[in-house]
């Protein structure tokens, strides 16, 4: 049973007891090689349904789920992103719960964890594509009226900058037909395929050259299907050689959509899931987890980087804008994400001494960035407090994080989160290190290390923190000490 519980006042604990065998198993797992650079999607190709920045390899959550839980246990990823960990828990016959506040993350995770009927999808796909082609051929004027009438000015401006007129018409014809499909599961399957032809590292059918980059770049010239080329930016001049690397080959929306649907069909879950296996996808904030106290057997999750180092919404809005979210709405949604840079009227939390020292050092270099970092650690403090609350005693949370660089100073995120966790009552056996395979992770920078690039400096390693919730704790609340036994 899931019930909504409000966040309590953060407390400080000192750990005093643990299950040695579980604790040592967690420590051993964290000490292994956690790089996983090969066969990252072995076992389930639905991990490839949609591009997503900086997702971790399936073997990472699988390692901890297999070794720290049993069939039928409850597994949670409260910041699920593309649902990699949730899907792995589901496939391993655990009751998986995933949470996020990003609409695209919710859609991806729901589709990845749902079984589908192959032939029904295939028949509906052919009908949608043929009807959309007919609409474009016979009712283009009506489609243009829909573009002008159904989208606000900010969204229309966005479409005109990032999509050619022909692409807009084709995308609109598809999404209009997809949105009226009566079966929710088939509708969501097609919505995801639609999104995935737009959001790719190469920018898909948009004019973006690279949606894996922190700030997408628009093509200066396009190559049309008929072989002609068109310069989009008159300021670039007419030197075709210089424009070669800034040219986008325009592809057919319908051909790409069909190709993506067929590709995703190969990865759908074809079996009836075990009665002991479920996947629940929740639109919920990790700072207020809607689960009972002491109800979860394992948490594996990966929070965002501080200060929007990877700005998910920069890419996600390219498809979400076609699905009923205005550009202005998405801009407001971005400010709700952990790691966002909005600090006005934000409620800051107290943090441990080392974390506070790092915040203050960055404030001396750049006061705004120091406040942004304080917001990040405040949000993560509330998140870790909620994770501690919902975990069963004697169980663990595994948190995968990366450092950020602010004004040349490392945020030392892993060490700071470990200290925050200890202050809340967790034991931290060790912090594992994994080297990133940047070619597989849709990262916003090249594979070659550039020591002068702040983005490059912070995105070649991740840290895997183990948080263990002991059976018994000594609880210190604002100077008052008492011993508490966690219910089993």
Count of discrete domains = 2
Instruction: Identify the CATH architecture of the largest domain.
Output: 3-Layer(aba) Sandwich
Please give the radius of gyration in angstroms.
24 Å
User: Biggest β-sheet: count, sense, barrel?
Assistant: 7 strands, mixed
In short:
The chain is α/β, with parallel strands linked by helices.
How does this structure look, described?
The chain is of the alpha/beta class and 488 residues long. The chain has two domains: 12-101 and 270-478, Vaccinia Virus protein VP39 (Rossmann fold); 118-216 and 251-265, no CATH class. It contains 17 helices and 15 strands. The protein has helices spanning 20-30, 59-68, 84-91, 103-112, 118-138, 140-150, 153-162, 165-178, 184-196, 240-243, 253-265, 312-320, 327-334, 353-365, 367-390, 413-424, 454-458; strands at 12-15, 74-77, 95-100, 221-223, 229-231, 247-249, 278-283, 296-301, 391-401, 405-406, 409-410, 431-435, 461-468, 472-477, 480-485. It has a seven-stranded mixed sheet with strand order 7-3-2-8-9-13-12, with helices on both faces. The longest helix has 24 residues, at 367-390. The protein is globular. 44% of the residues are buried.
């Amino acid at each position: 049973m899931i019930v909504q519980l409000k966040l309590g006042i953060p407390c400080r604990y000192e750990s005093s007891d643990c299950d040695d065998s579980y604790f040592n198993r967690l420590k051993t797992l964290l000490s292994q090689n956690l790089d996983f650079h090969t066969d990252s999607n072995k076992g389930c190709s639905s991990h490839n349904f949609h591009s997503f920045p900086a997702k971790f390899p399936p073997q990472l959550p699988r390692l901890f789920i297999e070794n720290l839980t049993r069939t039928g246990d409850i597994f949670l990823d409260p910041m699920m992103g593309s649902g990699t960990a949730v899907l792995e828990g589901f496939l391993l016959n655990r009751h998986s719960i995933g949470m996020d506040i990003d609409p695209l993350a919710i859609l991806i995770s729901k589709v990845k964890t749902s079984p589908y009927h192959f032939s029904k999808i295939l028949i509906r796909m052919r009908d949608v594509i043929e009807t959309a082609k007919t609409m474009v051929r016979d009712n283009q004027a009506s489609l243009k009226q829909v573009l002008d009438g159904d989208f606000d000015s900010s969204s229309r401006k966005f479409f005109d900058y990032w999509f050619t007129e022909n692409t807009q018409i084709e995308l609109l014809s598809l999404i209009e037909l997809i949105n009226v499909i009566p079966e929710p599961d088939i509708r969501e399957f097609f919505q995801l395929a639609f999104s995935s032809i737009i959001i790719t590292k190469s920018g898909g059918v948009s004019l973006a050259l690279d949606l894996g980059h922190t700030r997408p770049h628009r093509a200066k010239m396009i190559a049309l299907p008929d072989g002609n080329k068109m310069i989009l930016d008159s300021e670039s001049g007419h030197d075709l050689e210089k424009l070669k690397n800034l040219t986008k080959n325009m592809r057919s929306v319908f051909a790409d959509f069909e190709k993506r649907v067929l590709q995703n069909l190969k990865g759908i879950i074809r079996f009836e899931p075990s009665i002991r296996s479920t996947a629940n996808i929740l639109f919920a904030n990790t700072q207020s987890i809607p689960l009972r106290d002491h109800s979860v057997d394992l948490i594996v999750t990966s929070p965002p980087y501080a200060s929007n180092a990877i700005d998910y919404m920069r890419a996600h809005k390219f498809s979400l804008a076609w699905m009923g979210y205005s550009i202005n709405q998405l801009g407001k949604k971005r400010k709700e994400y952990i790691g966002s840079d909005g600090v006005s009227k934000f409620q800051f939390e107290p943090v441990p001494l080392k974390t506070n020292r790092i915040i203050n050092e960055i404030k001396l270099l750049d006061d705004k960035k120091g406040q942004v970092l304080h917001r990040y650690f405040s949000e993560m403090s509330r998140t870790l407090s909620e994770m501690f609350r919902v975990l069963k005693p004697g169980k663990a949370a595994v948190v995968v994080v990366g450092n950020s660089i602010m004004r040349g100073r490392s945020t030392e995120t892993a060490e700071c989160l470990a200290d925050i966790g200890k202050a809340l009552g967790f034991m931290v056996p060790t912090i594992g290190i994994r080297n990133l395979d940047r070619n597989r992770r849709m990262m916003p920078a090249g594979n070659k290390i550039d020591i002068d690039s702040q983005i490059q400096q912070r995105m070649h390693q991740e840290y895997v923190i183990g948080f263990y919730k002991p059976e018994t704790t000594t609880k210190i609340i604002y100077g008052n000490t008492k011993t508490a036994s966690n219910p089993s």
